[in-house]
Specification:
Length: 409
C-alpha cells in the first residue's frame, strides 16, 4: 500500500510584544516570509482600550474601543480578531509563538524555548529591567495558558550583544561589586541590530561574516552598534537603555556625578532623577519636542532652541560613528534604521557631514529620495557605503523562533 502523502509542516509564527499596557502582534508565514495579520491592543486596563487589527489580505484595519481588563483579555481579543479572518490560534498551521523579551542578561545568548526554568530566570532579571520584563512575563504566561501545547520561544533584545568582548562590556568599577549586582553593559534593540546588519550585507552583495557595519537605530529610543563579521563587538546602550545616544526623552551619556550633584545640591530624590533622565531629557528636555519632524520644522523656521537640540543630537551621533569606526578598524557600511534613521534625510546628511576623510558621504539626490526597501544613499563608488535599511524586528523574532522550532522538530 503506497505511503500517505505527508502534509506540509506548520509554518506560521505569531510574534507577541507585550508591554505594561499594550500588546503588539504579528502573524507571519515563514514558508514565504509573508505577513498574514498584525495588530495592537493598547490602554489595557482602561475603559477606553483600543483594539486595532489589520489582516494583510485586505489591508483595511478594523478598530474597536471598550474596556480590556488585562493581558489575558487582550490576547483573547487578539485571538478573536485572528479567528474572524480564518487565522485562529487553534490553527494546525501555527508552529510557535515568539515573544520579545527585553532583558536576558548574560544567561540567554540565543532564542530559547520557554519552560518554568526560563520563566524563573526572566523573573530574576526584573531588577535590571523593571519596566519591561514583568510585562513580557505576563504576555508569555497568558499565551502559554491559551496554547499550552504550542512551543513558546523567547527572543531577547540583549542576546545579539552578548558577543561583545569583556573590554567593551565591563564598566571600570570594582569587579566584585559589579558581579554581585550584575552591573555590566548589556545593550538593547538587539533584534533590530541583528536584522539590519544582515540586510546591509545582503544589500552589498556580501555574506555577513565578510562585512563590518555600524548600525544606527534611531527612533524615540536610539542606539548604535559596531558589528564585525555578523557579531556585535560594541553597542551604545548599557546596563539599561539610558546610556548612549541622545534620544527622544532619554539623556544618553552623562557624567555619573550629575546624579550626585542633583541629589546634594538640587535636593532631588533618586526617583525624581530617574524620571528626569528617562522621561524629561533628550530632545524633549532640550527643546520641548521629541518628534524629529517637528524639530526640523522649527529649525527651518529659525528656532534657535530646536537648532541647538538638533546639533547636540548630531554631535553625539557623530562621536559614536567615529568611535565605532576606530573599534572596527575597517568599515564597509553605515546603516541608518528605525523611524528617524529611515525617514529623516537631514539627520543622515548631518551625521556624516565632514567625515569624507573616513570615506563617509551622502549623495543629496539619493538621500532625499523616498524608498520602501533597503537602499544606498552614498555616492556611486563611495569607499564606505551609507545605507538606509528598514528594520523589521517582528520578522527577526519570527525567523529566530521558526529556526529554533524547526531544529527541535
Amino acid at each position: 500500500m503506497p505511503d500517505e502523502p505527508r502534509s506540509a509542516p506548520p509554518s506560521r509564527v505569531l510574534v507577541l510584544n507585550s508591554g505594561s499596557s499594550s500588546v503588539k502582534y504579528q502573524l507571519l508565514d515563514m514558508s514565504d516570509s509573508s505577513r498574514l495579520a498584525s495588530g495592537l491592543v493598547e490602554r489595557i486596563g482602561e475603559r477606553t482600550s483600543l483594539v486595532r487589527h489589520t489582516p494583510s489580505a485586505s489591508g483595511e484595519p478594523r478598530e474597536r474601543t471598550g474596556p480590556v481588563a488585562d493581558h489575558e483579555a487582550a490576547l483573547k481579543a487578539m485571538a478573536d480578531e485572528l479567528a474572524a479572518d480564518g487565522l485562529g490560534l487553534d490553527s494546525p498551521e501555527l508552529a510557535a509563538i515568539g515573544h520579545r523579551v527585553v532583558h536576558g542578561g548574560m544567561h540567554f545568548t540565543e532564542p530559547t524555548v520557554i519552560d518554568e526554568a526560563v520563566l524563573a530566570e526572566i523573573e530574576r532579571l526584573i531588577p535590571v529591567a523593571p519596566l519591561h520584563n514583568p510585562a513580557n512575563l505576563t504576555g508569555i504566561r497568558t499565551a502559554m495558558a491559551l496554547r499550552p501545547d504550542l512551543p513558546q520561544v523567547a527572543v531577547f533584545d540583549t542576546s545579539f550583544h552578548t558577543t561583545m568582548p569583556e573590554s567593551a562590556a565591563r564598566y571600570a568599577i570594582d569587579v566584585r561589586t559589579a558581579d554581585e549586582h550584575r552591573v555590566r553593559r548589556y545593550g538593547f534593540h538587539g533584534t533590530s541590530h541583528a536584522y539590519v546588519s544582515r540586510q546591509t550585507a545582503r544589500l552589498l552583495g556580501k555574506a555577513p561574516e565578510d562585512v563590518n557595519v555600524i548600525v544606527l537605530h534611531l527612533g524615540n529610543g536610539a542606539s548604535a552598534s559596531a558589528v564585525r563579521g555578523g557579531r556585535c563587538v560594541d553597542t551604545s546602550m548599557g546596563l539599561t537603555p539610558l546610556e548612549g545616544l541622545v534620544m527622544g526623552t532619554r539623556s544618553g551619556d552623562v557624567d555619573p556625578a550629575v546624579i550626585f550633584h542633583l541629589t546634594r545640591v538640587g535636593g532631588m530624590s533618586v526617583d525624581e532623577i530617574d524620571t528626569l533622565l528617562n522621561k524629561k531629557s533628550g530632545l524633549v528636555g532640550l527643546c520641548g519636542d521629541n518628534d524629529m519632524r517637528e524639530i526640523r520644522r522649527r529649525v527651518d523656521a529659525g528656532d534657535e532652541e530646536a537648532k541647538l537640540a538638533f546639533d547636540i543630537y548630531i554631535h553625539r551621533l557623530k562621536k559614536y560613528i567615529g568611535a565605532y569606526y576606530a573599534v572596527l578598524g575597517r568599515v564597509d557600511a553605515v546603516a541608518f534604521t528605525a523611524g528617524v534613521g529611515e525617514n529623516a534625510a537631514p539627520v543622515r546628511e548631518a551625521a556624516v557631514a565632514g567625515l569624507a576623510g573616513l570615506g563617509l558621504e551622502v549623495d543629496a539626490e539619493r538621500n532625499g529620495a523616498r524608498g520602501a526597501g533597503p537602499r544606498l544613499v552614498s555616492p556611486e563608488g563611495a569607499r564606505v557605503a551609507v545605507a538606509v535599511v528598514p528594520t523589521d524586528e517582528e520578522m527577526e523574532i519570527a525567523t529566530q523562533t521558526y529556526a529554533l522550532v524547526g531544529k527541535r522538530n
